[in-house]
Structure formats: C-alpha cells, structure tokens
Amino acid sequence: MEPKADMPSGPPGVPARKEKEPVTESFWRELLYSIKQNRSASLGGIGLLLFVAAAIFAPYISPHDPYLVNLNAQFHRPSPEYPLGTDMYGRDILSRIIHGSRISLVIGLVPTAISMAIGTILGLLAGFYGGRTDSAIMRSADIVMAFPSLLLAMVVMYTLGASLLNIFIALSLVGWAGIARVVRAQTLSLKEKEFIEAARAIGVKNRVVIARHLFPNCVPSLLVLFTLGIPGAILSEASLSFLGVGAQPPTPSWGLMVSTGKEFLSVAPWVAITPGIAILLVVLAFNFLGDGLRDALDPYMKH
Amino acid sequence: MAETLVTSNGLKKYFAGSAGWFGKSGDVVRAVDNINIAIGKNETLALVGESGCGKSTLGRLLINLLEPTEGEVYFKRQNIYKLNPAERTAFRKQVQIIFQDPYASLNPRMKVRSIIGEPLETHSLAQGKEMDSRVGELMNLVGLEKGYMTRYPHQFSGGQRQRIGIARALALNPELLICDEPVSALDVSIQSQILNLLKDLQQQLGLTYLFISHNLSVVRYMANRVCVMFLGKVVELGSCKAVFDQPLHPYTQFLMMAVPLPNPKLRNREKRILEGDVPSPINPPPGCRFHTRCPYAKGICAAEEPELADFGGRQCACHFPLG
Fold first, then answer.
1. A213-227 pLDDT per residue, tens
2. Which listed residue, of A17, A218, A256, B151, carries a Cα 20 to 30 Å from A61's Cα?
3. Are B152 and A4 within 8 A, CB to CB?
C-alpha cells in the first residue's frame, strides 16, 4: 500500500502559492536585522568588532613595542609620541593595551567556550534522563555554585600555579555550573513538547533526539549565555591578574596593568586608569550585544 | 469488526504524585484503570470523554510511548511491551501518532524536508535524492506543495502544519494511527479539510485509526465505533450510530445532550446539564465512579462497581442502563 504519487497536489481550500525564493536562513537574517534596529546592541557589536580587530592586528597597529623598556621615558604624560602615556619602565601604554586585547580575547573566548561545552552536555543529559543522572549532575553544579566563584578560581590558580592554561582550567571549572542549570531547565520544558514525543514514536534513538531535537532548540539561549559569559571571563581574568594569581609580568594583561599602575595612582594616574577603561569598554560592548541578542531572541523562544 | 489489530488486556496506568518529604507516599492518579478494548483492522474507533479522563494516556499506552503500570497490549498478537530491539523497530514502523497542537509537534529548527524525512532516515529507508522524492510524494499525498520542502514550520499556517505532521506519520506506511485530537486546535474551516484528508487516506492506505476527541460532531463524522471513557474507565462501547442515537450509560446521555445543535428549531429538546465537577481521579468515588453526579443513582451504585456488560453487540458499565 504505497501512497500514490499522482494525487493532484493541493486540495481545495489550500491555494498552492508559487514563490520565487523560499526563505531558508531566516533565523540568522532576522537576528541581524533586529540587532541593527537596536541602538545599544549595534554599538556593542561595533565595539566588539574593533576589539577583535585590535587583537588580530596588534603587531601592525601598535605604535611601539609593548615590551620595550625605555628608562628615559618613564611616566610620560599622554602625548603625540605616546598617546596614552608610558608606565614606570617607559613602555608605551597604548601598545600594551592593544596587545593586552589578545589576552583578553583569548581569555574571554576559550574558558567560556569550554564551560559552555561542558555545561551544555551535562545540562542536556541531566534534563533528558532525569532521575539519578540529574541528581548527580545538578548536585555537583550546586556545590560549584555554592563557592564564591572568584575564590574557587583563586584556589585552583594557587594549587596549579599561575599560567594561561591554568586560568582556562580555573574559569571553566567555575563557569559550567550556571550553563548546565539553564540548559537543563530549557531541556525540561522542551522535553514536554510533542515533537520530542513524535521522534520517540518514530523510533529515533535517544542520543539523536538530544543532538537533533533538543540541542538546536537550546542554541538561541546558548548564544545569549555565550555573549554574556565572555565579559564575565574577561573580568575574572582581570581580577585574578590584579590579585597576582593570573598573568605574570611582563605580560601586557589589562588586569595586571591596573594592578601595577595602582602604585603610581597619585603620580601617573593614566597607568592604571587607561587599561581600566579598556576593560570597562569591552565588557560594556559584550553586555550591550548580549542584551540585544536576548531581546531579539525572546520571541523565538516563545514559539 | 473483521480482524483485530490491537487488543488491550487489563491495561492500567497510575501516575504517582511526588513522594512527600518524610517518606509519605504521594497520591496516585489512576489515569487509565483496567481497560480492555480491541480495535479492528481498517476501522476508526473513537475515544471520547471529558478532559482528564485518560484518553490521551490510553492512546500513548497503545503504541508504547508510555509504560503501563499493569496489563498488556497485543498488536497483531505480539505483546508490545515485551519486544526485542529488532521487533521494537518493526513495531515503530507500524504505529504512528498525530498530535493535537501543530505548533508544538514540529521541531521549529528543522526544515520540512528533514521533519518528514526523519522517519525514513531513522529506519534507513531512503537517502539523498530518493528521500527527497519520497518526501515530495508524501507532501503531495497530504496536499502540500512539494516546493515547500526547504521551509521551516513557522512559515506555514496551522492547517498546513497539521498536514506536515500527518505526512510525517505516514512516512513509514503505518497500519495504526493514533489521532490525538488532530483537529481541536484548528479553525473550523480547516478542521473539515483535515478530517476529509484523514478519511481519504484511510480508504487509500487501509489505515486503522484510534481517534481521540472531545468533539462529538467530529466523532460522529469519523468513527465506526465509539468508546466513552469516564475517569480512566470505559463506561460505554458500541457502534457509532447506537451510542449516539440510543446511549445506554447516563454519562453518555449527558454527553450527547451537551452537543450544540446548529438547527435552532431543535433547540427546545429536553436538555439537562450535568451538575458538579468531575471527581478527582486521585480518590475516585467508591462503586460506580459516576454515581456522585448521576441522576439515576441508587444505593447499589455507591457500593458496587458495575462491570462492563454486553447489551446486544455493545457494552455498557451501569447498574441501571437506559433504554
């Protein structure tokens, strides 16, 4: 009893409209459109692009060598030669900030991506399977969340030693729990939808249901979490470096620059303030964009 | 009823409420309580009853989307809860379900092609070009333009989405289709289209339907036999004509009287509305579960639960059947 293919297409009442081009990637296009409509989100996006460009092209756009010590040029005020002045070793602060954006970008992206990956997988498993899997995963998440995150990161840094790789580990260990919670909640609500039941009625395997039906529907919220997670990671790195357990001198890390500059706040305030402003601007840009994304995606989540 | 396709045997599904903090056992909802029904090949059995009486639960039990607390279901003489993995895969191809809400039953992030093609892919029935052409056939079958294959569900109307859901259910050439209120979320004008489509498909493909609905006019149009449920139990089962024209169970009678009539001249018929609320399925009343609302109830109704008994080709569970 093979269905017949020669049935007339389109029954009465359903006009068979012909359209030139079926819209396929409407999701990303609409997303871009609503970001453009939102002033603060577009500002954030532009700031973000500048930040990424600075990080990528750092050696080409920075006027001086960020590591070059010049004891004849200590504590220069901002001037045409040194647009943001120099620090106690006579190093050009603008160049150091531009190079520091590389560290901040990597620190923002890598640990966030790692904790997103861990949190998403664990959240999906906890939400989908429930029962003991759920309890085990979510209780571990609760334990992680019970610690002040910066304190936990500091403990990790102290035990493992200060290095870039260890910052990744420390921030990922702290970050996954919040992601897992959100993803689990989303999975629980999606699981009740009938399309999941339809997949089960078809006989789709569990892992395919998770990968094909649950995960793609979590992507909009993950996008928001990702954009809002990056500034958190950047701030954490800055805090750790400020406290001396993050990046080590002479690395041009923004947090470290603020930390060393604070000694000279009365003589040369620009040494500490300018990298502080850089942190502020980048974090603001990410937050603006993240908020815009959330506003843009909310109607999607309602469907 | 020619050949039997599905039979249920003492089917029960109890949902346990969450257990209390101090080991108190939670309340148990008896959604489906001891149901024996049989669906014949190529027939449409309608399942009617008010919200929360266990219709959908029963439908899901019959295709093993839910595990029963007790009882068996036989599909072509095979116990569907005791299948080995290979048999289970084969069983999945023979039964499918159409859902009530066309907005929740399609994955919003998948294109129509992948939605309708998923069953084919899962059972390795078609790939690539072959899958495209099969999906196209299915779309034609349910009255959708083939060219819409690359669209997302949100680009369709409710009726079109329901057609996509039907195409997906038909992709595996099933024999039994559970229709869980397939039209109650649609406009009246679209409802008739979908109902006629389902009827045509039944004739063309020799399908068997379990048609779950609370819309009695729809049931009368679609069904061969009707099964009336009340609080997890079958109270009456019989041919569509018999149940509609001469209900035996008082509950059925009240259901029929509640159907709105389009003809105003007939509206002065005797009309009584059922008083009170449905008793809680957590603590169903003793004896006949309907006795608290039944105008004909006598002493025995509260004491003894009536069995489903034969009345000339139909069944009814009542101490004092009407007619």
1. 999 888 888 888 888
2. A256
3. no
Match 């500002």 to its residue by tokens.
A43
- Mean pLDDT rounded to a whole number for chain B: 87
Is residue A136 a part of any domain in this protein?
Answer: yes
Give residue A152's domain range. Answer: 37-68+83-297
Between B60, B107, B155, which is nearest A213 by CB?
B107
Q: Which residue of B has its CA nearest to A193?
A: B104
Q: How many domains does chain A have?
A: 1
* Chain B residues 258-287 within an 8 A CB cutoff of chain A: none
Sign of CA dihedral B251, B255, B258, B262: negative
* Encoded amino acid at A112, one letter: T
Going by pLDDT thresholds of 50, 70 and 90, the confidence category of residue A9 is: very low
pTM: 0.80
Q: Tell me the C-alpha distance between A58 and B90, whole Å.
A: 61
How many CB atoms lie under 10 A from the CB of residue A266?
A: 6
Partner residue opposite B137 with nearest CB, options A5, A11, A201: A5
* Structure confidence at residue B164 (pLDDT): 94
- Strand, helix or coil at B31? strand
Instruction: Give A21's contacts in chain B (Cβ within 8 Å).
Output: none
Which of B84, B98, B140 is the mutation pick for testing A, counting most A CBs within 10 A?
B140
Domain-embedded: residue A1: no
| Complex ipTM value | 0.85
8 Å CB contact between A89 and A69: yes
Chain B residue at shortest CA distance from A191: B104
